[in-house]
Amino acid sequence: DELADVHDEL
Amino acid sequence: MNIFRLLGDLSHLASIFILLHKIRTTKSCAGISFRSQALYVLVYLTRYLDLLWGPWLLYNTVMKLFFIGSSVYVLYLMKFDYKPSHDMGLDNFKVEYLIGGSFVMALLFNLAFTFDEVMWSFSLWLESVAILPQLFLLQRTGEAETITTHYIFALGAYRALYIPNWLYRWVMEGRVEFIAVFAGIIQTIVYADFFYVYFTKVIQGQKFELPA
Q1: What is the mean pLDDT of chain B?
Q2: Is B116 on the interface with A (CB under 8 A)?
Q3: CA B155 to CA B116: how far, in whole Å?
Q4: What ipTM, to 2 d.p.?
Q5: A4: chain B residues, CB-CB within 8 Å
Q6: How do the domains of chain B map onto residue ranges?
Q7: Which N-terminal residues, if any, form the signal peptide (chain B) (predicted)?
């Protein structure tokens, strides 16, 4: 899914 | 966001405040590795490239700007305001190998062979070893101020706390960032000896001293 392509952690 | 991620980020924030507090109260950056600090600037600048194009989640954006800003500020303090207290003779770990090795790892392991993904991967590998000049300096001096060990512990705890966060996300969301997980595990292993001495000495109220 698209969200998984975004690195959302620090 | 889960409790492990939040605690990890708070630990990261705390580490920076502890470091700034140490520099200000002792009016000295003795025992702090300029080379490790410079590597962290490189880590944050290469990881947070997405600040340029988003998406800009409020929490992440504020934290990213803070991590970049504070790491640059610490470099500035060490380079100018507190320069005489910097252990330049002892702080001589060859960071070229860390940067080169991380770059090779980033070329080999990335989600896509694009500039931003290679930089993102590079930042994770580099972060996993960026503390080495600091630990090397500690080894050379053989001891450390207690507040400096609190700083190093809080910084290491951040990635260690991300490990249960990744397990949680894997189970609850079916989501795994393999590069981050592997680099995070390596980072925690790099810290293992330090954690051991921290728990067996500093937490018991003793001075941080390495065996001669």
Answers
A1: 95
A2: no
A3: 25
A4: 0.84
A5: 175
A6: 3-203
A7: none
